Amino acid sequence: MASPPISECTPSLDPLSDISTPAIKYEPLSPAETPKVVPKDVMSPNTTPIDLQPFIKALALLGSIQQNNTSDNIEETTLNANNKRERSESLDKNLSHEDLIALKRQRNTDAARRSRQRKAMRMEALEKKVLELETANERLRLRAAIAESEKANIEAKEKRSKVRILELEQQLADAHRVLMQTNFKEITA
């Protein structure tokens, strides 16, 4: 069985390939997405063959744009997006209806994939932030517990000191009274 025509395929980038020269593998679309192709011998004589060259260029362009979008350079991504619009508008005019639908589906698939990647990155960042905040919260709870313990110790020490001061004041008052009584007895005697 022959492999499906290129118009029935979507690009799939090889992750191990060199970034400067992307190797594009073509994988068949699902049966629901595969357009019906009429073999050449069944085509009517007034039907013109489809020129696949613009579609191949568009798929290669999408593959290179997909690789460029994964880079961290924002300016480069912006420039590529602007170039993509200009080039894709000119390519869209040369594509057949089926090819245009396949191209739009591929663009939508790529946009959805990028959106899911951004969402996953946001979730990872938020989970990391949650862990950091939970750790900081636990540290603060420990510091608060230590501070409460120290406060309780200081309050207990202060209470003991007050009791001791009252005892010493009472002893001083008793000693003063005894001394006064002794002095009074000596004076009267």
From TrEMBL:
Chain residue ranges for the region called Disordered: 1-22, 73-97
Pfam families per record: bZIP_2
Comp. bias (Polar residues): 73-82
Gene Ontology molecular function terms on file: DNA-binding transcription factor activity
PROSITE patterns: BZIP, BZIP_BASIC
Residue ranges, compositional bias (Basic and acidic residues): 83-97
Ranges of residues in domain BZIP: 104-155
Coiled-coil parts of chain: none
Protein's UniProt name: BZIP domain-containing protein
Upper taxonomic lineage: Eukaryota, Fungi, Fungi incertae sedis, Mucoromycota, Mucoromycotina
